UniProtKB/TrEMBL annotation:
Protein name: UDP-glycosyltransferases domain-containing protein
PANTHER family referenced in this protein's UniProt entry, alphabetically: GLUCOSYL/GLUCURONOSYL TRANSFERASES, UDP-GLYCOSYLTRANSFERASE 75B1
Pfam families per UniProt: UDPGT
Organism: Camellia sinensis (Tea plant)
GO biological process: flavonoid biosynthetic process
Keyword terms, alphabetized: Flavonoid biosynthesis, Glycosyltransferase, Transferase
GO molecular function: quercetin 3-O-glucosyltransferase activity; quercetin 7-O-glucosyltransferase activity
Classification via InterPro entries: UDP_glucos_trans, UDP_glycos_trans_CS
Similarity field: Belongs to the UDP-glycosyltransferase family.
Signal sequence, start to end: none
Length: 363
């Protein structure tokens, strides 16, 4: 294929590979590092210490390798890493290199994981209540990827169904969540346009449409209700934080109330902004221009956001174009910064501690 590959591994892993092969193909080189377990991991060893040392020493070795290859005029262009080593993906991103996990189990297993975490989890739990995902930290690392590519050790004829089952999906979040808070009710024409935009986007969705004070369901008035129900789900209420925390959700169509704005940022969800009044237009401007995590829909001359515009914004924030990639990247950034702020020693943690102390002291 005309590519040069360097395999970086621990001393113990390289020793095992050396025993299994007496020759090295052209274009392939091996580099090893000591993780402190040169004779291999034993059952009596502390697994957490092993993982910690492997990450610490492996990160240093990979960093030095990337820098050395650059100095030699043969820069690294991508990092393929074992799923057990998610730290390799973190380091690759620090060097602005695309990381790609190597899946060494059957594609069927990956398909099971994919559908469990992307919409079919409740169905699985009905069959098996006591479900445990082994080494789930491997899968958590995939959530950080904007445009995920996975190298699977199989071939099409062997596992065609499993490969097609995930291949037809974008392995990033795909569900659109729509909610306008607990106070504001949209006009029927506005709801119709949102429905049209959702249908034309052809993406699964979860839409919160509150029951009106007279007990009437707003969705019952929609002209396209039957088509909508085939594509997504309309509910009168849901736990917004739980929904936005789900890995399937990739877009939040919101009125841009401050609570919803913060939740989208803290949970790393790109947004389509449909502000209504008070602080919401300003919040929408912040999301689009300052935080750069969303797109604000433009109203027509009658003050209505048309379905075509809603579809455009959805595709803009969840699509694979340059703007969409930047929006998803920024969403991940704010999610990380929010976590840093509230953890012990973070800015919000320290400020809240200072506030409590000052109250105790009577200001």
């Amino acid at each position: 294929m005309g590519v040069k590959v360097t395999i970086l591994s621990s001393v113990s892993a390289q020793n095992r590979m050396a025993k299994a092969s007496s020759s090295t193909p052209d274009g392939l080189t091996f580099v090893s590092f000591s993780d402190g377990y040169d004779d291999g991991l034993k059952l009596s060893d502390n697994i957490e210490h092993f993982r910690s040392e492997n990450k610490l020493r492996g990160s240093k070795a990979l960093s030095e390798l990337i820098k050395a290859r650059s100095d030699e005029g043969c820069p690294v262009t991508g990092v393929v890493y074992a799923m057990l080593l998610p730290w390799a993906a973190e380091l690759a991103r620090e060097f602005n290199l695309p990381p790609a996990p190597l899946w060494i189990q059957p594609a069927t297993i990956f398909t099971l994981y994919f559908h469990y975490f992307n919409g079919s989890g409740d169905l699985v739990k009905k069959i098996c209540n006591d479900l445990r995902v082994p080494l789930n930290y491997r899968l958590d690392a995939l959530d950080a990827e904007v445009n995920l590519k996975i190298l699977v050790n199989t071939f099409d004829a062997l596992e065609s169904k499993a490969l097609k089952a995930t291949g037809k999906h974008n392995l990033t979040a795909i569900v659109v969540y729509i909610s306008f808070g607990s106070f504001f009710n949209l006009q029927l024409q506005e709801i119709e346009e949102i429905a049209r935009g959702l249908l034309e986007s052809n993406r699964p969705f979860l839409w919160v449409l509150r029951v009106l004070p007279d007990g009437e369901k707003q969705e019952d008035k929609l002209s396209c209700k039957e088509k909508l129900e085939k594509q997504g789900l309309i509910v009168p209420w849901c736990s917004q934080v739980e929904v936005l925390s789900h890995p399937s959700v990739g877009c939040f169509v919101t009125h841009c109330g401050w609570n919803s704005t913060l939740e989208s940022l803290v949970l790393g969800i790109p947004v389509v902004c449909l502000p209504q009044f008070t602080d919401q237009p300003t919040n929408a401007k912040l999301l689009e221009d300052e935080f750069e995590t969303g797109a604000r829909a433009t109203k027509n001359d009658e003050g209505i956001v048309e379905g075509d515009e809603i579809k455009r914004c959805i595709e803009l924030v969840v699509g694979d174009g340059k703007i969409g990639e930047e929006i998803k990247k920024n969403s991940k950034k704010w999610k990380y910064l929010a976590k840093e702020a509230v953890k012990e020693g973070g800015s919000s943690h320290k400020n809240l501690r200072t506030f409590v102390d000052e109250i105790d002291d009577g200001f």
